[in-house]
Amino acid sequence: MGINVGIDLGTTFSAVARISPQTGRAEIIKNHFGETITPSVLYFNSDGSVLFGEEAKQLQQEGNTNSVAFFKRNMGNGMYEVTIYGKKYTAADFSSILLKKLKETAEEVSGQKIDGAVITVPAYFTDIERSETMKAGRAAGLNVLAIINEPTAAAFAYGLNETKKDQTILIYDLGGGTFDVTVARINSDTIDVLGSDGDHKLGGKDWDDCIAAYICDEFEKQTNVSFADDAEMVNSILVLAENAKKQLSAMNSVRIPVNYKGSRAIINLDVETLEDISSFLMGTTASVIDRLFDSIGITWNNIDGVILVGGSTRMKMVQNYVRQMSGKEPLRGVNVDEAVALGAAIRANIVQEYDMLSGKPARRSSEQILSIAGAKKVRDVTAHSMGMISQNKEGDRYINSIIIPKNSKIPSSESRTYQFRTGSKNNEMEVYVVQGEYKRPLDNVITGMYSIQGIEKTSPPVTNIEVTYQYTSDGIIEVSAVQKETHKSLKVIKQSVPDDMSWTDLDPRDHAEGGNAPANIEVILSIDLSGSMYFDHSTPIHKATEAMLQFVSEMSGSKVRIGLMAFADRHKLLIEPTDNYEKLNQKIRKISDVNVGACNKDQPFTEGYRYFSRSDADVKYLIVLTDGVWSRQEHAIKEAKKCHAAGIEVMALGFGSADAKFLKAIASTDSFASLTDLNELSGSFSKIAQEIGSSGITALD
Ligand code: AMP
Predict the structure, then answer these.
(1) Cα–Cα distance, 621 to 519 (Å, whole number)
(2) Is residue 113 part of a domain?
(3) Do residues 296 and 374 share a domain?
(4) Could you report the per-residue pLDDT of 470-494, keeping only the tens digit for each?
(5) Rounded-to-integer distance, Cα 60 and Cα 680, Å
(6) Same domain, 361 and 434
(7) Which residues of 611-624 are buried (b: 16+ CB within 10 A; e: fewer)?
(8) Is the minimum distance from the CB of 312 to ligand 1 under 6 angstroms?
(9) Nearest atom of ligand 1 to the alpha carbon of 245
(10) Is the CB of 204 within 6 Å of ligand 1?
(11) Alpha-carbon dihedral of residues 83, 85, 87, 91, nearest 10 degrees?
């Protein structure tokens, strides 16, 4: 059986660690060069072989274009695709190749087979980035035991076992490409993360860019020559810039000689100038910290110690800032480059023994588990709120309706119940899940479109779907659903988010897209024109006409398409469902002129079925208005049932001598049958209008 390792899959450097069989402490497995960290760089040879680490970085620095670096910044970015020798790669593909190389190297160096791994990610990574990291790990042949947050892993590595007293620790993690800040309460056996925040587009590389821009300006000042547009030159200046930055962590000034097309200059850079030109970057880290403090209600006064993680925390300005704000020296003891991998190794080796989620020991006693140096129970949090796209209360805007707020403990789950009209939208309900804090959906990350399938038809056709949104302990989102009436779990399929989500900026009343958008609805009003409608100076037909006109006016602005049918001895579809209400009203006003015979031999269902079976509407209503008893009732009921089976909702509205039992038999559900007074006809139609207007998914809470 192989071992479990911790892997810090960094933007610029990666590291692998295990628990030493000799000491029981976490230790780095060095690479073939005897280095504890390996550059996260790949180089593709034309024969299909791939170099990685130091060798690949060397070739990259020589300006070889078949090398890739910084791909972690593009994890889960659908727009990022690199073609090398005709083959396309995503960031997850590159990560998977690198992980495989790291695994093979660690196996060769340690002489131990690697089975499982805990892979670390910035706390700020969203569901997409975490899922892609998990996928990359699996594709590399690793059993991914967990995805954990880098700062939490660092807290493990620091152990802080010496005190029984609770300490509030700030973990300041500034790597090559990401910045993460986390506040945790740590005691002798528990790490309780209070909150995390970060900016995963900020890291040491931004300081390099800053220095490179400075070198470029100074060179131009001294020589009147600019190389700003020469990509190859800028690349090699970036290498000089990074070296200068690293030197300035140990000394006060550096001299950078630059040659370009025969022009030469020596650029002097000192610590103060570096601080000056990059102060806006330090400002960004400071405001991320302030934002986190605000959200969890603490200040620098509450911080007992600061753990520095990531190569960029070697910069003097970072250490000065931490000293100045906390009034203390940063905590020391673990190498900033190694802390994350070491912590992940600890976690990888307690994960089997310890149920991190419940906090209860699984197989062994907690004393034995905690005998791995640094091992602790951990309660982590999510750095992003999880929400779904829904309509605001007024129904005039789409919003991110937050379900699990940011900084909630993970794992965490919340359920919401939605009303869904069965028979609509192929019995599929869609929910769009987003991560982020902003009201406007597009200002957040839309992580997935979840299609909830196999909803069973119910009677009445409104069913309750309980959707459970979950953050796993890996910080990955899972959605599950149960149909409350049947208690059955529904199939939930995560689908990719359509490229064009601009409908979320539109007024929900003006379009029919999206999970909670109004359904695509068609209605056929079918009116009984037998002789009795003309009794009493045609009062019934006039009242029915009035009620139908009223109904149409109540539906205005709804986009529901309405048609009109008359039946008696024969039937006639006077107008197919349309949203041209003007044209429809003209037909309604002239209904009394229509001749379909005087008796009740025919029925509207056969024609309704014929029309709707070709229609693409999601919700189909056949509203039958009648004042009498039909001569072929059995046949009518049979045809009505065919409509019910096809998902056509039949509503039966009777008055005068209409037969209540018959109305119930032809209606889809008992609640869709009603016997009313002629004078109440408009009111009954009004209720129907409300019923139809509420089609689609309606949140109950
Ligand atoms: P990490 O992603 O944690 O491996 O951090 C890599 C980043 O740390 C890169 O941007 C390096 O340039 C930076 N770095 C490494 N060593 C130093 C140093 N001595 N001083 C300043 N930055 C450094």
Answers:
(1) 12
(2) yes
(3) yes
(4) 999 999 999 999 998 899 999 999 9
(5) 82
(6) no
(7) bbeebebbbbbbbb
(8) yes
(9) 21
(10) yes
(11) -50
Distance from Cα 84 to the centre of ligand 1, integer Å: 28
| Cα-to-centroid distance, 13 and ligand 1 (Å) | 9
In the predicted structure, residue 303 carries a pLDDT above the cut 50: yes
Q: What's the 651 CA to ligand 1 centre distance in angstroms?
A: 71
Expressed in angstroms and rounded, the spacing between residue 105 Cα and the centre of ligand 1 is 23
pLDDT tens per residue across span 330-371: 987 788 889 999 999 999 988 544 444 444 444 444 444 445
**Cβ(423) – ligand 1 distance below 6 Å:** no
Asked whether residue 184 falls in the same domain as residue 36, the answer is yes
Determine if ligand 1 sits within 6 Å of the CB of residue 313.
Answer: no
Residue 443 and residue 436 in contact, taking contact as beta carbons nearer than 8 Å:
yes
How far is 195 from 548, CA to CA, in rounded Å?
A: 58
Residue type, 516: N
Atom of ligand 1 at shortest range from CA of 37? 4
Q: Hunting for tokens 């056969």 — which residue is that?
A: 606
444 and 553, same domain (yes or no): no
> How many angstroms is it from 273 CA to the middle of ligand 1?
19
Residues 417 and 366 in one domain: no
Distance 14 CA to ligand 1 centre (A): 12
The CB of 11 under 6 Å from ligand 1? The reply is yes
Query: DSSP letters along 219-234, please?
Result: HHHHHS---TT-HHHH
- Best mutation site among 120, 240, 246 for ligand 1, i.e. most ligand atoms within 8 A of its Cβ? 246
Q: Look at residues 284, 301, 11 and name the one whose alpha carbon lies nearest to residue 183.
A: 301
Q: What is the CA radius of gyration of the chain?
A: 34
Residue with CA at minimum distance from ligand 1 atom 1: 175
Ligand 1 binding pocket includes 247 (Cβ within 6 Å): no
The structural domain count of the chain equals 3
**In 3D, which of 514, 520, 516 has the Cα closest to residue 560?**
520
Claim to verify: residue 55 and residue 168 sit in the same structural domain: yes
pLDDT tens readout for residues 496-527? 888 889 999 988 877 654 444 446 789 999 99
One-character DSSP codes across 655-672:
-TT--HHHHHHHSSSGGG
User: At which of 353, 381, 409 does a domain end?
Assistant: 381
Same domain, 293 and 157: yes
**Considering only CA atoms, which residue is closest to atom 16 of ligand 1?**
311
Cα 120 to averaged position of ligand 1 atoms, centre (Å): 18
CB-ligand 1 contact for 72 (6 Å cutoff): no
* Structural domain of 427: 386-510
39 pocket-lining for ligand 1 (C-beta < 6 Å): no
Distances (CA, A) of 396 to 117, 281, 392, 502: 48, 39, 7, 15
Beta strands at 360-361 and 354-355: parallel, antiparallel or unpaired: antiparallel
Tell whether 419 and 302 lie within a shared domain.
Answer: no
Atom from ligand 1 closest to the CA of residue 204:
10
Per residue in 640-693, pLDDT (tens digit) is 999 998 889 899 999 888 889 999 999 988 878 888 888 888 888 887 876 676
Q: Ligand 1 centroid vs 75 CA: distance in angstroms?
A: 20
C-alpha to C-alpha distance for 553 and 38, rounded to whole angstroms: 71
